[in-house]
Write a structure and sequence with these properties.
Number of strands: 9
Structural class: alpha/beta
CATH class of the largest domain: Alpha Beta
Strand content: 15-25%
Order of helices and strands: HHHHHEEHEHEHEEHHEHEE
Number of domains: 2
CATH superfamily of the largest domain: Vaccinia Virus protein VP39
Helix content: 25-40%
Largest sheet: 7 strands, mixed
Strand order of the largest sheet: 5-4-3-6-7-9-8
Number of helices: 11
């Protein structure tokens, strides 16, 4: 490869074919994102500079990225960042990669916090990871404040960096600990979480992009995937103000279980929201007055 002249167009075509043979789902997109990172350019640059040759240094870096990607290392971990809610978040292997489905949770929280509230108060984000959920909420709700918790010190460090990069550090507090334990003396207008929810028996069937790289502690949650939900639903009510709510991202076929848990622990109205594929993705439990 190094002895040839490789233009952007030629390299993208070769990479797409190579990634496709390796069984990657989005070979063209992966190649474009990785090449953009090497060149430090937007994707539109690739299409208007098809004949631009790469330098030896650029080609060498791209070859490193190719080797990592064919081992199914996620693109976000290779380039070190991921877009979410129109914002750019640093990611490391200490954090889950923010996913588009989680934007449904964020959008639902934004719309419900705006209803009938003069003071948005403070929300808690449990299992923050990169901080994508709470920092997106802070970005789009300038009067809001947040408290965030993660059991992983590495995740907290990444979330702090993202808060600083987005200019939101003055409206957020960080706690390292297990679910609600560090914040049990507080009251919130809402508690939001995308906790681990994959049943242990399903872990082996996950795509290698996920199971071989993303933190398992942020994925698996007991035999039925409901361990974290049981604790959150049982304990969150005491920490939420009247007319507040608990908003949770959920896995496939977990909505009925969450509805029953809500009834058992005295929650009021239960909302279930679907993702773009028509799958139940978010449950919102409202505080019973």
């Amino acid at each position: 490869m190094a002895d040839e002249i490789w233009t952007i167009g030629k390299l993208l075509k070769w990479t797409e074919e190579y990634f496709a043979k390796a069984g990657l789902d989005t070979p063209r997109l992966d190649g474009e994102v990785l090449l953009c990172h090497v060149l430090q350019k937007e994707r539109i640059h690739l299409y208007v500079h098809f004949d631009q040759p790469l330098t030896k240094e650029e080609l060498a870096q791209f070859k490193v990225f190719i080797k990592e990607r064919v081992q199914h290392k996620p693109v976000a971990y290779i380039v070190g960042h991921k877009d979410f809610m129109g914002l750019d978040f640093k990611v490391t292997e200490a954090t889950l990669i923010p996913r588009p489905d989680t934007e449904i949770l964020v959008e639902a929280v934004i719309s419900r916090l705006k209803i009938g509230r003069d003071d948005l108060g403070t929300i808690a984000d449990i299992g923050t990871g990169t901080g994508a959920i709470c920092l997106s909420l802070l970005n789009y709700l300038p009067e809001l404040k947040a408290v965030t918790v993660d059991i992983s010190p590495g995740a907290i460090e990444v979330a702090r960096e993202n808060a600083e990069c987005l200019g939101l550090s003055d409206r957020i507090e960080f706690y390292q600990g297990d679910l609600l334990e560090p914040i049990k003396d507080r009251k919130f207008t809402a508690i939001v979480s995308n906790p681990p929810y994959i049943p242990e028996g399903d872990m082996a069937g996950l795509d290698s992009n996920v199971k071989d790289y993303e933190p398992l502690s942020a994925l698996a949650a007991g035999v039925d995937g409901l361990d974290c939900y049981r604790r959150l639903v049982a304990e969150a009510g005491e920490l939420i103000e009247d007319d507040g709510f608990l908003a949770l991202e959920i896995g496939i076929n977990q909505a009925d279980s969450l509805r029953k848990l809500g009834e058992e622990h005295g929650w009021g109205r239960c909302e279930v929201l679907k993702d773009l594929a028509g799958i139940d993705r978010v449950v919102i439990l409202w505080k019973q007055k």
